[in-house]
Design goal:
By secondary structure, this protein is mainly α. 72% of the residues lie in helices and 0% in strands. It is built from three helices and no strands. Helix 1 (2-25) runs antiparallel to helix 2 (30-42) and helix 2 packs antiparallel against helix 3 (46-59).
Amino acid sequence: NYTLLVKNRIQLQEEIAFWEQQLTKTPNYRDTHLKLAQIYFQLGKNTKATKHLATAAKIDPNYPTLKGFVF
């Protein structure tokens, strides 16, 4: 249903706004970057998603979820 897709996209945009605001407070928090990566991948914005994954990996290179990723 198109209406549901639009609502989902709006919700994801609102989540991005929230998490981007969190980055202004704690730019070196790994999980914020991971959450943004997840949302950007859902929206098909792979370049932005990959940027946040790479940042999370720099912050915490030993985090098991990020092991094996090459950036």
